[in-house]
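Hello K.,

You asked for the raw outputs rather than the summary table, so here they are, unedited. I folded two proteins back to back in the same session to keep the settings identical. This is the first:
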Amino acid sequence: MAGVLVATLLPASAFAVDPPTPAPPEATAVATPIATAKKAATTPAKGEKAPPAPPLPEPAVRLWMVAPSPRGPWTMRLDNEGEKPIRIPADVRLLRFEIEPEAYIAPSEEVDPKAKKMWAPAKKAATSVLCKLPAPLRPDGFPEPSSLLLRPGESYVESFDPRLFCFGKDAAAKLAGGAVVHVRFGWEAAKKPAWSSAKKPDGGPFVVEGTAFPPEVTPLREIAAPTMVLHFDRLSAPATLAAPTAPNAGAVPPTPPGWIDPDAKTKAPGAPDVEVAKPPPVAPPPVVDENAPRLELTTTPFVDASSTSRAAVTLTATNVGQRPMLVAIHQRMVAFRIDGPDGVLRCSAMPPTHGVPRELYRALKPGASSSMTMLLGEGCTRDALRRPGLYRVQATLETNESGAELGLAAYTGTARAREPSLVRVLSGPDPFYAVAPRAIPTPKPAPPPEGEEDSE
């Protein structure tokens, strides 16, 4: 039986399918190189990585900074010089400045040669300072309300006070003529830990990015403006920059020909003597008693307030005269002029009440002073500082209580602070910007005057 089964199964191989007929040799010779080339271009060889995609170009954007004076205002301008629209945060709070102290001042021929030692290169001991906003005032992410799309040939322009960033006595002192300023706009590159070796794509936030998908330009986290050197102004110029005194200053100028003295007697030919009427005598200036008591008002130069309700200013009234005085000083006698993001607000002092008790009158000897700290919300309306930002507060003290109803002869007068207080509010009920930003056509340089065109 076993032999029969084997004999039966063996003939079954006769029913197998014949193998396919091979292609003609000439067809195989033409198709094989093309297929091999396509496969080599799309599929990397075993053990090799695919070639990286070519990097995208950077957006053609330019940042300008115009600083006509160390104290401001300064102007930021951001231009889209490319051929594609871009998206930017139109928010000046993303600026930061690295200020190097005065490095050198070039000598001038107008300066006294004896004073040229003052113009020698400064020592390198002074260090640079970084000016940027504190965390509560600076956006940590992309500020969506300030998002702005710039078409090709459009710009964003905004003016600001540099002391909003260089805040405080030491930082503001760096804003002087001759200082070198490096300006950057945006966010610093994210710092990765030393143990991290993975190269993950940067997720932003970006200060400049394109609007197309897939992206056509490389997004940027920050951009830099050209380095600038601050100019001197009247408030920060050195004493050697004063105008030289003329050698004949104070000399009597010569009498021009044909000039007639109106006070001299004139006589026409053949006419009797006639006196020309003289102008009425001018009253002499009043006598100023430099020893009389008088008040001088000073205020806190810099105030950093976490919120609008915590903004407080310290006022100090000093008797700078040479005689003692009796005076009544109260918070209701203080007036403020507040210049802020929403304009100028004036808060007047109250009129005299003639009802001040005797114990509120105090005696101030020469050189003595009296200080008081008051919230700006007490001397002004509570809506005076609703928006975060920088405010210039000018205080005036009106001592208007004479004490005559008590038989006193108290000092009365007005003292205005020479320098305003700079109050920086970090947070408030209103946003930093009152209106949405807008783009403008990129300003073009003014044409040269006639006759100064290039001769080429």
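The second followed immediately with the same parameters:
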Amino acid sequence: MSRTIYCISGLGTDERIFSKLRPVGYSLKYIPQLLPDSEETIGAYAARLAKFIKEDNAILLGVSFGGILAIEIAKIKPLQKLIIVSGIKSSKELPRWMKVVGTLKLNRVLPVRSYKFTERIDNNRLGITTEEEKELARALRQAADKAHMEWGVNEIFNWRNNWIPDYVFHIHGDKDRIFPVTKVNADYIIKGATHLLVYNRADEVNKCIRKILDME
């Protein structure tokens, strides 16, 4: 049995969001998000990420947009278990407003990056409250690639997937304002947790992961 958990971060983030995640008995291996090629489909992009997984029947964890990518990877690569945190498993769990924006292509004209005048609003939606979290979010936004962000937002809003593998486990916060808990069918719901729970509620996420990995 593999003792490595491969991790995919959310859109506009990197391995720093996993810095407080320490599941006992397992090591984390971060899969870097690559820059998308022009007009690249999410399936083709996921296939490139899958090459970082060097074993069959691996354990894969995806956060937010990383959960969507993890589902796409599962379509082409055998996995032992798939863990989604603060994400969605199918287009049925996508908020209606995102579907409308994607269908009308409004995301093509709306800004997708966080600037100083929207920072407070963005932080509120993500559940960011402490100075440490604010500094991390600011650093991630400054490092984010604009083309990657625009591509990713478009793929999220237009994701159409109905396939959910039977080895997927979902951890979610009941105060998530990006993907509301009322829309998702989560296996583990952490009370009071927001979209950033993998970082600011890491101890509880660790416990959920441990329970998942202990299952036969």
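Residues 131-143 form the longest helix (13 residues).

Happy to rerun anything if the numbers look odd on your end.

Regards,
P.
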